[in-house]
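ok, trying the design again with the full structure, not the truncated one.
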C-alpha cells in the first residue's frame, strides 16, 4: 500500500481536557507518524473556509462556533494508507456509533465535540494539508 499523508485536527473539546498526548499516542500506536504539528486558534473566517463544503448543512454555524472556541492542534500524519488508517483510529463521526478503542469512542463528547477531524480522501487531504502547512514545514 502507498505511503500517504493526511490532515488531522485535535479539536477544542480535546485540547480543553488536555488530551493531546493521549490522542497522538493512538495515532502512533496505529503506525501513523506525526510529520508536522502546530497548535493554533482558528479565526471565524478560517473555520468557515476550512469547513466550506458543509456551509449549507444545518450544523454549520454551530460547528464553526465550536471550532473557534479554543485551541486546536493541526497535524500531518504519514504512513501506509494513512487516510483510511486515520479514519479507522478516529472511529465513526458520532461517538455513539464509534467502535471500542477508537479515539471518538474513548474521548468524544458528542457528534459535534468529537475530538478529532481527519481528511476523507486523497484530494481533500492534499487541500487540507495545504490549508495549514507549507512544504517546508513537513518533515517525513
Ligand atoms: P468532522 O470530521 O470534523 O467533519 C465535519 C464535522 O461536523 C464533524 O466532524 C462533526 O464534528 C460536525 N457535525 C456536527 N453535527 C453533525 C452531523 N449531524 N453530521 C455530521 N457531522 C456533524
Amino acid at each position: 500500500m502507498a505511503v500517504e499523508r493526511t490532515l488531522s485536527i485535535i479539536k477544542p473539546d480535546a485540547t480543553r481536557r488536555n488530551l493531546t498526548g493521549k490522542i497522538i499516542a493512538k495515532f502512533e500506536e496505529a503506525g501513523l507518524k506525526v510529520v508536522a504539528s502546530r497548535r493554533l486558534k482558528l479565526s471565524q473566517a478560517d473555520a468557515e473556509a476550512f469547513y466550506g463544503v458543509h456551509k449549507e448543512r444545518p450544523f454549520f454555524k454551530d460547528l464553526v462556533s465550536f471550532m473557534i472556541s479554543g485551541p486546536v492542534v493541526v497535524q500531518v500524519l504519514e504512513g501506509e494508507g494513512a487516510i483510511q488508517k486515520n479514519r479507522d483510529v478516529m472511529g465513526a463521526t458520532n461517538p455513539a456509533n464509534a467502535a471500542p478503542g477508537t479515539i471518538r469512542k474513548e474521548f468524544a463528547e458528542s457528534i459535534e465535540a468529537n475530538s478529532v477531524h481527519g481528511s476523507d480522501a486523497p484530494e481533500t487531504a492534499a487541500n487540507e494539508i495545504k490549508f495549514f502547512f507549507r512544504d517546508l514545514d513537513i518533515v517525513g
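Keeping the full-length input from now on. Residues 80 and 89 are 14 Å apart (CA to CA).
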